[in-house]
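Re: beginner question about structure tokens

> Can someone show what the tokenized structure looks like for a real chain? I only ever see the sequence side.

Sure, here's an example I had lying around. Input first:
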Amino acid sequence: MARVPLAWLNLTHRKARFLLSIVGISFAVVLMFVQLGFWRALLDSQTAVVRSVDADLVLISAQMSTVTDVQSFPLERVQQARAVAGIAAARPLYVRYFPFVWKNRADYVDADPTGRVPQWPIRVLAFVPDTEYPAFREDRIPGFANVQHRLLEPGVALMDAKSKPMYDAIREWNDGGPSPVGVQREVAGQSLKVVGLFDLGTDFTTDGSLLMSARNLEHYAGPQSLDSVQIGLIKLEPGANSREVLAGLRRALPPDVRAMSLNELADQEEQFWSSSTPIGFIFMLGLLVGFVVGVVICYQILSTEVADHLAEFATLKAIGYHDRYIAGVVLKEALLLSLLGFGAGLAIGWPLYIVLEGATGLPLRVTVPRAGLILGLTVFMCVLSGFLALRRVRTADPAEVFG
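And the corresponding structure tokens:
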């Protein structure tokens, strides 16, 4: 007959307390999952545009600290980049927030007593449609290559299907109504028709997005709107060395622009939101708080277990068992708690991510690296608590316990 480990028997001999212990550990795990999820959702959402464009290198303003900052540089810099050896194409990407305002049809009916109509800002990403060099990657925006030709029509745009429900076309669609494709709305005081959808998602500064051609951008924002660019998209010729092309760009272009790889821009964006904004700090602090809460909960559980079995541990010491064996029993209890608590926390956290993603529009994902990080933190916090609880066992004197 197989022997049941002593650590497992110690944990499970009181079933109700054992279940409460798992609940306590899983609470800390869920707390860490939520904080990590929002932190990564912050970074993933803020880099969504960068990671969705189809480019090898990019040009940005030397003053730009984040893509949402929409610092501009002259269109002439994109044209100058085309002359650098190794570059197959250089195209402008325009990012605008104002004066584009999405006026909902329902809002005209529900105007406030003063007659004012609620207006919702909406981000516009504009580019020159090109079948040979699409502005966006097919794997990031599925079907984009097949619908971008529609943007050549005047007064049309694609709408982000993941925009927030404040835009009535999306709200009605989410409620089981008709698709937003074909709706007419007013943007920047002029009529606009939605001719297709794409999936990009919201972020902490943007509630919705439109994709349109540069020519339509000029129609809505004025004749001078195309003279200033927010991002230059550069595709390399086959076999071109990206480092050599970057060096050539930096020599050829004035210091008012910076040339970098797409990954470097994404890393810059993540670094900005992680270290230069209070939002990133808050979520990192929340992750640390979840870890500390877990340490406290697990320590209370294990210290109670040690206290309840102090006589048994003292007996083991009296008959010759070393402290190392007893420490192993307690640490095995800690490891069992961590694994069971993580499993329960993952079972709760996964569907919770789905609910939160639907409510916020942010990309909350349970990935193997993120789950591995939470598992590592859970094991560490429980083992740390086990070491703290061992102090009472080490000082236990059989003579005092049974005296």
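Each token stands for a local structural state, so reading them left to right follows the chain. Residues 63-254 form one domain.
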